[in-house]
Amino acid sequence: MPEFFTIAAVLAGYLLGADAIQLGTLDENRAPKVVQQHLYRHPVADAVERDRRRFLHKRQNDNVNAVDVPLRNDLFLYYMNVSVGTPPQDFEVHIDTGSSDLWLNVPTSEFCSLPVDPCTTGTYDANVSSTYEYVNSLFEILYVDKTTSNGDYARDIVRLTDSNVSLPAQQFGVGYESTTQDGILGIGYPTNEAQISFGGPLYDNIPVSMVKEGYINTLAYSLWLNNIDADEGDILFGGVNTAKYQGDLVSLPVIPDRGLYRDFTIEMNSLGLSGDEEAFSSSPLEVHLDSGASLTYLPDDVTDRIYSKVGATYDARYGINIVDCNIANQNETMDFVFSNITIKVPMSEMVVPYANFGAQELCVFGVLPTITSSLGNEYIILGDTFLRSAYVVYDMTNHEISLAQTVFGVDAADDKIVEISSSGDGKPVETGIASLVTPVGTIGSGSGSGAGTGTKNGSGSGSSSRTGEKGIASRFGGQMGLVGMTFVACILSLW
Protein backbone atom coordinates (compact mmCIF):
# COMPACT_ATOMS: atom_id res chain seq x y z
CA MET A 1 0.00 0.00 0.00
CA PRO A 2 1.40 3.46 -0.88
CA GLU A 3 2.49 5.46 2.13
CA PHE A 4 0.35 8.46 1.22
CA PHE A 5 -2.75 6.28 1.23
CA THR A 6 -1.97 5.02 4.72
CA ILE A 7 -1.73 8.65 5.85
CA ALA A 8 -5.10 9.39 4.26
CA ALA A 9 -6.67 6.41 5.98
CA VAL A 10 -5.33 7.47 9.36
CA LEU A 11 -6.54 11.04 8.80
CA ALA A 12 -9.98 9.75 7.93
CA GLY A 13 -9.95 7.66 11.10
CA TYR A 14 -9.51 10.75 13.26
CA LEU A 15 -12.59 12.26 11.63
CA LEU A 16 -14.85 9.27 12.18
CA GLY A 17 -17.69 9.40 14.65
CA ALA A 18 -19.01 6.53 16.75
CA ASP A 19 -22.76 6.88 16.32
CA ALA A 20 -24.61 3.64 16.92
CA ILE A 21 -27.22 2.40 14.49
CA GLN A 22 -30.19 0.32 15.54
CA LEU A 23 -33.79 -0.49 14.71
CA GLY A 24 -36.15 2.23 15.84
CA THR A 25 -39.27 1.69 17.90
CA LEU A 26 -42.68 1.97 16.28
CA ASP A 27 -44.30 5.38 16.75
CA GLU A 28 -48.00 5.31 15.91
CA ASN A 29 -48.02 9.11 15.58
CA ARG A 30 -45.35 9.22 12.86
CA ALA A 31 -44.80 7.21 9.72
CA PRO A 32 -41.33 5.62 9.61
CA LYS A 33 -38.79 7.42 7.43
CA VAL A 34 -38.58 4.50 5.05
CA VAL A 35 -38.83 4.39 1.25
CA GLN A 36 -40.30 1.25 -0.29
CA GLN A 37 -39.88 0.37 -3.95
CA HIS A 38 -41.27 -2.68 -5.74
CA LEU A 39 -39.02 -5.02 -7.70
CA TYR A 40 -40.24 -6.89 -10.77
CA ARG A 41 -39.21 -9.95 -12.75
CA HIS A 42 -37.74 -9.43 -16.22
CA PRO A 43 -36.42 -11.95 -18.81
CA VAL A 44 -32.72 -11.47 -19.51
CA ALA A 45 -30.88 -12.81 -22.55
CA ASP A 46 -27.62 -14.69 -21.89
CA ALA A 47 -27.49 -13.87 -18.19
CA VAL A 48 -24.36 -15.95 -17.58
CA GLU A 49 -22.32 -13.99 -20.13
CA ARG A 50 -23.71 -10.79 -18.68
CA ASP A 51 -22.48 -11.81 -15.22
CA ARG A 52 -19.09 -12.72 -16.65
CA ARG A 53 -18.57 -9.31 -18.26
CA ARG A 54 -19.62 -7.49 -15.09
CA PHE A 55 -17.17 -9.45 -12.93
CA LEU A 56 -14.31 -9.00 -15.37
CA HIS A 57 -14.90 -5.27 -15.30
CA LYS A 58 -14.78 -5.26 -11.50
CA ARG A 59 -11.42 -6.96 -11.46
CA GLN A 60 -10.06 -4.59 -14.10
CA ASN A 61 -10.82 -1.73 -11.75
CA ASP A 62 -8.57 -3.38 -9.15
CA ASN A 63 -5.69 -1.89 -11.10
CA VAL A 64 -6.52 1.41 -10.66
CA ASN A 65 -35.16 7.52 7.35
CA ALA A 66 -36.53 4.37 5.45
CA VAL A 67 -37.69 4.19 1.84
CA ASP A 68 -39.30 0.93 0.63
CA VAL A 69 -39.16 0.43 -3.14
CA PRO A 70 -40.76 -2.62 -4.83
CA LEU A 71 -38.52 -4.68 -7.14
CA ARG A 72 -39.35 -6.80 -10.18
CA ASN A 73 -38.13 -10.39 -10.24
CA ASP A 74 -37.44 -11.45 -13.84
CA LEU A 75 -36.11 -14.81 -15.00
CA PHE A 76 -32.76 -13.89 -13.47
CA LEU A 77 -32.71 -10.19 -12.62
CA TYR A 78 -34.70 -7.60 -10.67
CA TYR A 79 -35.89 -4.17 -11.76
CA MET A 80 -37.59 -1.10 -10.33
CA ASN A 81 -39.35 1.90 -11.84
CA VAL A 82 -37.86 5.40 -11.94
CA SER A 83 -38.49 8.53 -13.95
CA VAL A 84 -35.92 11.14 -14.95
CA GLY A 85 -36.15 14.69 -16.25
CA THR A 86 -38.78 17.35 -16.96
CA PRO A 87 -41.19 16.21 -18.25
CA PRO A 88 -40.60 12.76 -16.68
CA GLN A 89 -39.12 10.00 -18.85
CA ASP A 90 -39.98 6.54 -17.50
CA PHE A 91 -37.52 3.66 -17.00
CA GLU A 92 -37.29 0.16 -15.66
CA VAL A 93 -33.76 -0.09 -14.25
CA HIS A 94 -31.88 -3.15 -13.08
CA ILE A 95 -31.24 -2.90 -9.33
CA ASP A 96 -27.60 -3.69 -8.54
CA THR A 97 -25.93 -3.82 -5.12
CA GLY A 98 -22.62 -4.56 -6.87
CA SER A 99 -22.23 -1.16 -8.55
CA SER A 100 -22.83 2.44 -7.52
CA ASP A 101 -23.97 4.51 -10.52
CA LEU A 102 -27.38 5.06 -11.99
CA TRP A 103 -26.91 5.05 -15.75
CA LEU A 104 -29.34 5.13 -18.68
CA ASN A 105 -29.31 4.34 -22.38
CA VAL A 106 -29.99 6.96 -25.06
CA PRO A 107 -32.32 6.34 -28.03
CA THR A 108 -29.64 7.29 -30.58
CA SER A 109 -27.01 4.74 -29.54
CA GLU A 110 -26.06 2.15 -32.15
CA PHE A 111 -27.34 -0.64 -29.91
CA CYS A 112 -30.68 0.95 -29.09
CA SER A 113 -31.19 1.88 -32.75
CA LEU A 114 -31.19 -1.76 -33.90
CA PRO A 115 -34.34 -2.86 -35.80
CA VAL A 116 -35.29 -5.31 -33.04
CA ASP A 117 -35.76 -2.32 -30.66
CA PRO A 118 -33.81 -3.85 -27.75
CA CYS A 119 -34.02 -0.91 -25.31
CA THR A 120 -37.67 -1.31 -24.34
CA THR A 121 -37.04 -0.53 -20.65
CA GLY A 122 -36.48 3.14 -21.47
CA THR A 123 -34.01 5.59 -23.01
CA TYR A 124 -33.01 9.07 -21.86
CA ASP A 125 -33.21 12.04 -24.22
CA ALA A 126 -31.40 15.04 -22.71
CA ASN A 127 -32.73 17.33 -25.42
CA VAL A 128 -36.32 17.09 -24.20
CA SER A 129 -35.58 17.65 -20.50
CA SER A 130 -35.60 21.26 -19.33
CA THR A 131 -33.77 20.30 -16.11
CA TYR A 132 -30.85 18.46 -17.78
CA GLU A 133 -27.34 19.60 -16.86
CA TYR A 134 -24.05 18.29 -18.31
CA VAL A 135 -21.43 17.36 -15.67
CA ASN A 136 -18.43 15.74 -17.39
CA SER A 137 -17.42 12.97 -19.81
CA LEU A 138 -15.92 10.62 -17.22
CA PHE A 139 -18.61 7.95 -17.44
CA GLU A 140 -16.49 5.15 -18.87
CA ILE A 141 -16.41 1.40 -18.28
CA LEU A 142 -13.27 -0.54 -19.25
CA TYR A 143 -13.52 -4.32 -19.54
CA VAL A 144 -10.68 -6.79 -19.23
CA ASP A 145 -11.28 -7.87 -22.83
CA LYS A 146 -10.27 -4.28 -23.80
CA THR A 147 -13.74 -3.22 -24.93
CA THR A 148 -14.90 0.11 -23.54
CA SER A 149 -18.15 1.95 -23.01
CA ASN A 150 -18.06 5.73 -22.85
CA GLY A 151 -20.54 8.41 -21.96
CA ASP A 152 -21.30 11.54 -20.01
CA TYR A 153 -22.30 12.24 -16.47
CA ALA A 154 -25.38 14.46 -16.21
CA ARG A 155 -27.65 15.89 -13.53
CA ASP A 156 -31.42 15.88 -13.65
CA ILE A 157 -34.45 15.23 -11.45
CA VAL A 158 -34.69 11.53 -10.56
CA ARG A 159 -37.92 10.19 -9.09
CA LEU A 160 -38.57 6.77 -7.54
CA THR A 161 -41.90 5.99 -9.15
CA ASP A 162 -43.46 3.89 -6.38
CA SER A 163 -42.76 6.44 -3.65
CA ASN A 164 -42.70 10.19 -3.09
CA VAL A 165 -38.93 10.44 -3.55
CA SER A 166 -37.76 13.20 -5.87
CA LEU A 167 -34.03 13.94 -6.05
CA PRO A 168 -33.21 17.27 -7.73
CA ALA A 169 -29.96 17.61 -9.67
CA GLN A 170 -29.11 13.92 -9.17
CA GLN A 171 -25.92 12.84 -10.98
CA PHE A 172 -26.09 9.76 -13.23
CA GLY A 173 -24.41 8.27 -16.28
CA VAL A 174 -25.66 8.61 -19.85
CA GLY A 175 -24.56 5.75 -22.11
CA TYR A 176 -24.14 7.07 -25.64
CA GLU A 177 -22.59 3.79 -26.82
CA SER A 178 -24.30 0.89 -25.13
CA THR A 179 -24.18 -2.86 -25.59
CA THR A 180 -26.79 -3.74 -22.98
CA GLN A 181 -30.52 -3.17 -23.19
CA ASP A 182 -31.28 -2.02 -19.65
CA GLY A 183 -30.34 0.94 -17.53
CA ILE A 184 -28.82 0.09 -14.17
CA LEU A 185 -29.41 1.53 -10.72
CA GLY A 186 -26.26 0.85 -8.71
CA ILE A 187 -26.81 1.28 -4.97
CA GLY A 188 -23.40 0.28 -3.61
CA TYR A 189 -20.65 2.28 -1.92
CA PRO A 190 -19.90 5.66 -3.61
CA THR A 191 -16.22 4.62 -3.70
CA ASN A 192 -17.25 2.21 -6.47
CA GLU A 193 -18.52 4.91 -8.84
CA ALA A 194 -17.20 4.67 -12.40
CA GLN A 195 -15.59 8.11 -12.57
CA ILE A 196 -13.31 7.33 -9.60
CA SER A 197 -11.23 5.12 -11.91
CA PHE A 198 -10.59 8.12 -14.17
CA GLY A 199 -9.65 10.68 -11.54
CA GLY A 200 -13.12 12.03 -10.91
CA PRO A 201 -14.41 12.89 -7.43
CA LEU A 202 -16.96 11.02 -5.38
CA TYR A 203 -20.52 12.23 -5.86
CA ASP A 204 -23.76 11.57 -3.97
CA ASN A 205 -25.30 8.49 -5.53
CA ILE A 206 -28.98 7.58 -5.05
CA PRO A 207 -28.77 6.17 -1.48
CA VAL A 208 -26.60 9.07 -0.25
CA SER A 209 -28.95 11.60 -1.86
CA MET A 210 -31.95 10.06 -0.10
CA VAL A 211 -30.21 10.59 3.25
CA LYS A 212 -29.26 14.18 2.45
CA GLU A 213 -32.75 15.02 1.19
CA GLY A 214 -34.23 13.68 4.44
CA TYR A 215 -36.20 10.75 3.03
CA ILE A 216 -34.29 8.26 5.19
CA ASN A 217 -32.17 8.59 8.32
CA THR A 218 -29.23 6.37 7.53
CA LEU A 219 -27.27 4.96 4.60
CA ALA A 220 -28.80 1.49 4.78
CA TYR A 221 -31.44 -0.58 3.00
CA SER A 222 -32.93 -4.06 3.12
CA LEU A 223 -33.56 -6.37 0.17
CA TRP A 224 -36.30 -9.01 -0.12
CA LEU A 225 -36.43 -10.82 -3.46
CA ASN A 226 -39.17 -13.32 -2.55
CA ASN A 227 -39.18 -16.81 -4.07
CA ILE A 228 -38.23 -17.88 -7.58
CA ASP A 229 -41.85 -18.05 -8.76
CA ALA A 230 -42.86 -14.63 -7.43
CA ASP A 231 -43.44 -11.71 -9.76
CA GLU A 232 -42.35 -9.10 -7.22
CA GLY A 233 -40.04 -8.39 -4.32
CA ASP A 234 -39.07 -5.12 -2.71
CA ILE A 235 -36.28 -2.95 -1.43
CA LEU A 236 -36.73 -0.86 1.70
CA PHE A 237 -34.42 2.14 1.94
CA GLY A 238 -33.79 3.17 5.55
CA GLY A 239 -35.74 0.36 7.15
CA VAL A 240 -36.54 -3.33 7.53
CA ASN A 241 -39.75 -5.32 7.27
CA THR A 242 -39.79 -7.65 10.28
CA ALA A 243 -42.62 -9.69 8.73
CA LYS A 244 -40.33 -10.84 5.92
CA TYR A 245 -37.71 -12.71 7.93
CA GLN A 246 -37.64 -15.18 10.79
CA GLY A 247 -35.40 -15.18 13.84
CA ASP A 248 -32.92 -12.39 14.53
CA LEU A 249 -30.93 -10.33 12.09
CA VAL A 250 -27.27 -11.28 12.55
CA SER A 251 -24.70 -8.63 11.65
CA LEU A 252 -21.38 -9.38 9.96
CA PRO A 253 -18.61 -6.86 9.24
CA VAL A 254 -18.00 -5.82 5.65
CA ILE A 255 -14.41 -6.65 4.71
CA PRO A 256 -12.58 -3.62 3.26
CA ASP A 257 -10.49 -3.76 0.10
CA ARG A 258 -7.04 -2.28 0.74
CA GLY A 259 -8.46 0.10 3.31
CA LEU A 260 -11.54 1.09 1.31
CA TYR A 261 -15.13 -0.05 1.63
CA ARG A 262 -16.11 -0.69 -1.98
CA ASP A 263 -18.05 -3.97 -2.07
CA PHE A 264 -20.40 -5.90 0.16
CA THR A 265 -17.85 -8.58 1.04
CA ILE A 266 -18.28 -10.79 4.11
CA GLU A 267 -16.84 -14.06 5.38
CA MET A 268 -18.70 -17.35 4.85
CA ASN A 269 -17.52 -20.12 7.18
CA SER A 270 -18.70 -23.20 5.29
CA LEU A 271 -21.19 -24.61 2.80
CA GLY A 272 -22.93 -27.97 2.78
CA LEU A 273 -26.05 -29.97 2.02
CA SER A 274 -28.57 -30.51 4.79
CA GLY A 275 -28.27 -33.96 6.36
CA ASP A 276 -24.86 -34.55 4.75
CA GLU A 277 -21.87 -34.75 7.09
CA GLU A 278 -19.38 -33.91 4.33
CA ALA A 279 -19.27 -30.19 3.61
CA PHE A 280 -18.76 -28.82 0.11
CA SER A 281 -16.47 -26.23 1.68
CA SER A 282 -15.20 -26.14 5.26
CA SER A 283 -12.66 -23.32 4.84
CA PRO A 284 -13.68 -19.67 5.28
CA LEU A 285 -14.32 -17.83 2.02
CA GLU A 286 -14.67 -14.12 1.37
CA VAL A 287 -17.89 -13.77 -0.62
CA HIS A 288 -19.50 -10.82 -2.39
CA LEU A 289 -23.26 -10.23 -2.11
CA ASP A 290 -24.38 -9.00 -5.53
CA SER A 291 -28.02 -8.67 -6.59
CA GLY A 292 -26.77 -7.92 -10.11
CA ALA A 293 -25.56 -11.53 -10.48
CA SER A 294 -28.17 -13.99 -11.70
CA LEU A 295 -26.48 -17.05 -10.23
CA THR A 296 -24.01 -17.93 -7.47
CA TYR A 297 -20.31 -18.38 -8.33
CA LEU A 298 -18.10 -20.61 -6.15
CA PRO A 299 -14.54 -22.01 -6.44
CA ASP A 300 -14.01 -24.85 -8.90
CA ASP A 301 -13.39 -27.54 -6.27
CA VAL A 302 -16.52 -26.54 -4.36
CA THR A 303 -18.58 -26.46 -7.55
CA ASP A 304 -17.31 -29.91 -8.58
CA ARG A 305 -18.41 -31.41 -5.26
CA ILE A 306 -21.83 -29.79 -5.53
CA TYR A 307 -22.33 -31.02 -9.11
CA SER A 308 -21.32 -34.54 -8.10
CA LYS A 309 -23.85 -34.54 -5.26
CA VAL A 310 -26.83 -33.16 -7.21
CA GLY A 311 -26.01 -34.82 -10.54
CA ALA A 312 -25.40 -31.63 -12.51
CA THR A 313 -23.31 -31.80 -15.68
CA TYR A 314 -21.70 -29.05 -17.72
CA ASP A 315 -23.13 -28.70 -21.23
CA ALA A 316 -20.68 -27.08 -23.63
CA ARG A 317 -23.47 -26.34 -26.14
CA TYR A 318 -25.02 -23.78 -23.82
CA GLY A 319 -22.08 -22.89 -21.57
CA ILE A 320 -24.08 -23.81 -18.48
CA ASN A 321 -24.63 -26.74 -16.15
CA ILE A 322 -27.66 -28.93 -16.69
CA VAL A 323 -29.56 -30.64 -13.88
CA ASP A 324 -32.66 -32.82 -13.67
CA CYS A 325 -35.57 -30.44 -13.10
CA ASN A 326 -37.05 -32.91 -10.59
CA ILE A 327 -34.22 -32.05 -8.17
CA ALA A 328 -36.32 -28.99 -7.33
CA ASN A 329 -38.80 -31.29 -5.58
CA GLN A 330 -36.25 -32.68 -3.12
CA ASN A 331 -36.38 -31.60 0.52
CA GLU A 332 -32.65 -30.96 0.99
CA THR A 333 -31.31 -27.44 1.38
CA MET A 334 -28.01 -25.84 0.49
CA ASP A 335 -26.73 -24.54 3.83
CA PHE A 336 -24.59 -21.37 3.72
CA VAL A 337 -22.97 -21.04 7.14
CA PHE A 338 -21.87 -17.65 8.49
CA SER A 339 -20.92 -16.58 11.99
CA ASN A 340 -23.95 -17.24 14.21
CA ILE A 341 -26.36 -17.85 11.33
CA THR A 342 -27.04 -20.41 8.59
CA ILE A 343 -29.06 -19.46 5.51
CA LYS A 344 -30.88 -22.49 4.09
CA VAL A 345 -31.57 -22.35 0.36
CA PRO A 346 -34.22 -24.88 -0.79
CA MET A 347 -33.50 -26.94 -3.88
CA SER A 348 -36.57 -25.35 -5.45
CA GLU A 349 -34.69 -22.02 -5.33
CA MET A 350 -31.44 -23.49 -6.72
CA VAL A 351 -32.94 -25.29 -9.72
CA VAL A 352 -33.71 -22.62 -12.31
CA PRO A 353 -35.92 -23.33 -15.35
CA TYR A 354 -33.87 -22.24 -18.35
CA ALA A 355 -35.59 -23.21 -21.59
CA ASN A 356 -38.08 -25.57 -23.20
CA PHE A 357 -37.31 -27.79 -26.18
CA GLY A 358 -40.68 -29.11 -27.24
CA ALA A 359 -42.03 -31.08 -24.30
CA GLN A 360 -38.62 -31.21 -22.59
CA GLU A 361 -37.79 -28.62 -19.95
CA LEU A 362 -34.16 -27.63 -19.46
CA CYS A 363 -33.02 -26.62 -15.96
CA VAL A 364 -29.75 -25.24 -14.65
CA PHE A 365 -28.38 -25.51 -11.14
CA GLY A 366 -27.92 -22.06 -9.65
CA VAL A 367 -24.17 -22.42 -8.99
CA LEU A 368 -21.36 -21.94 -11.51
CA PRO A 369 -17.56 -21.93 -11.16
CA THR A 370 -16.01 -18.62 -10.21
CA ILE A 371 -14.90 -16.23 -12.91
CA THR A 372 -11.17 -15.47 -12.95
CA SER A 373 -9.82 -12.37 -14.66
CA SER A 374 -6.61 -12.14 -16.67
CA LEU A 375 -5.05 -10.66 -13.52
CA GLY A 376 -5.68 -13.95 -11.73
CA ASN A 377 -8.34 -12.53 -9.41
CA GLU A 378 -11.17 -14.86 -8.49
CA TYR A 379 -14.74 -13.73 -7.90
CA ILE A 380 -16.78 -15.62 -5.32
CA ILE A 381 -20.30 -14.26 -5.70
CA LEU A 382 -23.50 -14.98 -3.82
CA GLY A 383 -26.04 -13.88 -6.41
CA ASP A 384 -29.80 -14.12 -6.72
CA THR A 385 -29.99 -17.90 -6.26
CA PHE A 386 -28.69 -17.30 -2.72
CA LEU A 387 -30.19 -13.87 -2.05
CA ARG A 388 -33.79 -15.00 -2.60
CA SER A 389 -33.53 -17.10 0.58
CA ALA A 390 -31.83 -14.41 2.68
CA TYR A 391 -33.28 -11.20 4.06
CA VAL A 392 -30.31 -8.86 3.75
CA VAL A 393 -29.67 -5.45 5.31
CA TYR A 394 -26.88 -3.50 3.60
CA ASP A 395 -25.56 -0.94 6.10
CA MET A 396 -23.04 1.47 4.57
CA THR A 397 -22.98 3.69 7.66
CA ASN A 398 -21.68 0.99 9.98
CA HIS A 399 -20.12 -1.22 7.26
CA GLU A 400 -22.18 -4.28 8.13
CA ILE A 401 -24.30 -6.89 6.39
CA SER A 402 -27.16 -8.23 8.49
CA LEU A 403 -28.69 -11.58 7.52
CA ALA A 404 -31.79 -13.54 8.44
CA GLN A 405 -33.72 -16.43 6.88
CA THR A 406 -36.30 -14.92 4.56
CA VAL A 407 -40.03 -15.57 4.72
CA PHE A 408 -41.55 -16.10 1.28
CA GLY A 409 -44.93 -14.88 0.09
CA VAL A 410 -45.64 -12.12 2.61
CA ASP A 411 -48.63 -9.98 1.61
CA ALA A 412 -48.49 -6.21 1.87
CA ALA A 413 -51.28 -6.32 4.46
CA ASP A 414 -48.92 -8.18 6.80
CA ASP A 415 -46.00 -5.76 6.48
CA LYS A 416 -44.29 -4.62 9.69
CA ILE A 417 -41.96 -1.85 8.57
CA VAL A 418 -39.47 -0.48 11.10
CA GLU A 419 -37.16 2.46 10.59
CA ILE A 420 -33.41 2.02 11.04
CA SER A 421 -32.32 4.61 13.57
CA SER A 422 -29.27 6.61 12.64
CA SER A 423 -27.95 6.74 16.20
CA GLY A 424 -28.88 6.02 19.75
CA ASP A 425 -29.93 9.65 20.30
CA GLY A 426 -32.00 9.78 17.13
CA LYS A 427 -29.74 12.27 15.36
CA PRO A 428 -29.10 11.53 11.68
CA VAL A 429 -25.57 10.66 10.64
CA GLU A 430 -23.91 12.73 7.92
CA THR A 431 -22.18 10.22 5.66
CA GLY A 432 -19.11 11.17 3.69
CA ILE A 433 -15.87 9.74 2.42
CA ALA A 434 -14.54 9.46 5.98
CA SER A 435 -16.88 6.59 6.74
CA LEU A 436 -15.69 4.71 3.65
CA VAL A 437 -12.03 4.52 4.72
CA THR A 438 -10.83 2.29 7.55
CA PRO A 439 -9.17 4.27 10.35
CA VAL A 440 -6.00 2.19 10.39
CA GLY A 441 -5.64 1.28 6.72
CA THR A 442 -6.78 -2.31 7.25
CA ILE A 443 -5.86 -4.49 4.33
CA GLY A 444 -8.50 -6.92 3.11
CA SER A 445 -9.60 -8.43 -0.13
CA GLY A 446 -12.51 -7.43 -2.25
CA SER A 447 -13.28 -5.81 -5.54
CA GLY A 448 -14.86 -2.95 -7.30
CA SER A 449 -17.89 -3.45 -9.43
CA GLY A 450 -19.63 -1.73 -12.23
CA ALA A 451 -22.00 -2.35 -15.02
CA GLY A 452 -23.10 -0.27 -17.92
CA THR A 453 -22.04 1.11 -21.21
CA GLY A 454 -21.93 4.38 -23.07
CA THR A 455 -19.73 6.85 -24.92
CA LYS A 456 -19.50 10.57 -24.72
CA ASN A 457 -21.46 12.36 -27.35
CA GLY A 458 -22.31 15.97 -26.51
CA SER A 459 -26.00 15.27 -26.92
CA GLY A 460 -28.18 17.63 -24.98
CA SER A 461 -27.51 21.14 -23.83
CA GLY A 462 -24.41 22.30 -22.52
CA SER A 463 -8.71 -11.09 4.81
CA SER A 464 -9.53 -9.52 7.94
CA SER A 465 -12.92 -10.57 9.22
CA ARG A 466 -14.46 -10.44 12.65
CA THR A 467 -17.44 -12.14 14.22
CA GLY A 468 -20.59 -10.03 14.24
CA GLU A 469 -23.33 -9.83 16.83
CA LYS A 470 -27.09 -10.17 16.63
CA GLY A 471 -28.95 -7.13 15.42
CA ILE A 472 -27.60 -4.23 13.45
CA ALA A 473 -24.43 -3.48 15.37
CA SER A 474 -22.43 -0.30 15.04
CA ARG A 475 -18.84 0.09 13.89
CA PHE A 476 -17.98 3.37 12.25
CA GLY A 477 -19.97 6.25 10.87
CA GLY A 478 -19.38 9.93 10.83
CA GLN A 479 -18.83 13.23 9.22
CA MET A 480 -15.80 14.67 7.45
CA GLY A 481 -15.19 18.33 6.86
CA LEU A 482 -14.74 19.78 3.40
CA VAL A 483 -10.94 19.95 3.66
CA GLY A 484 -10.67 16.34 4.77
CA MET A 485 -13.04 15.13 2.06
CA THR A 486 -11.12 17.00 -0.62
CA PHE A 487 -7.79 15.63 0.60
CA VAL A 488 -8.88 11.99 0.66
CA ALA A 489 -10.73 12.35 -2.66
CA CYS A 490 -7.46 13.54 -4.22
CA ILE A 491 -5.65 10.56 -2.72
CA LEU A 492 -8.27 8.18 -4.13
CA SER A 493 -7.91 9.63 -7.60
CA LEU A 494 -4.14 9.14 -7.50
CA TRP A 495 -4.13 5.68 -5.95
TrEMBL record:
Xref: InterPro entries: Aspartic_peptidase_A1, PEPTIDASE_A1, Peptidase_aspartic_dom_sf, SAP-like
Name this polypeptide is given: Probable aspartic-type endopeptidase OPSB
Boundaries of every Peptidase A1 domain copy: 78-404
Region Disordered: start-end pairs: 444-470
PANTHER family reported for this sequence: ASPARTIC-TYPE ENDOPEPTIDASE, BETA-SITE APP-CLEAVING ENZYME, ISOFORM A-RELATED
One Pfam match: Asp
GO molecular function ontology, one term from the record: aspartic-type endopeptidase activity
Catalytic center residues: 96, 290
The family this protein is said to belong to: Belongs to the peptidase A1 family.
Keywords: Aspartyl protease, Hydrolase, Protease, Signal
Species of origin: Zymoseptoria brevis
GO process terms (BP): proteolysis
Residues spanning the signal sequence: 1-20
Biased composition (Gly residues): 444-461
